[in-house]
User: Fold Succinate dehydrogenase / fumarate reductase membrane anchor subunit from Microbacterium halimionae.
Amino acid sequence: MTAPALADPRSSFAGPRKRSRNLEKIGWLYMRGSGIILVVLIFGHLFVNLMLGDGIHGIDFAFVAGKLASPFWQWWDVLMLWLALIHGGNGMRTIVNDYVTHNTARRVLVWAIWITAGFLILLGTLVVFTFDPCIGVTTDSTLWEACQA
Assistant:
């Protein structure tokens, strides 16, 4: 008696496969590309903040306010924020797809991940581009003189 023949794993029982975008491949490529860019952005961020100037002792509210006043650093931080949150969200999506077997639970969790990532991206972007260190400064504040200029 011979064992039944197994179908070729690449064969299709439903006829020829339609050409469509392979979102998993796009996600995989995104993870590799964003990971490389994030390494550069994060180590650049750490180098400028911790190694140049007074190092960690120089980081205070004025240092952050000064950095966020520069469009270069605003875009640097926003790019780092966007890439990191989308990279992390895609990684979480992959984990959910791998380990959650119930379709409805998987769908709810993936939606929750992307809604949360989108909200954090929106909130972080607004903070970076609308940051004003002089809001709410009163005459008894240490920032009063700097904000009067």
In short: The mean pLDDT is 86.
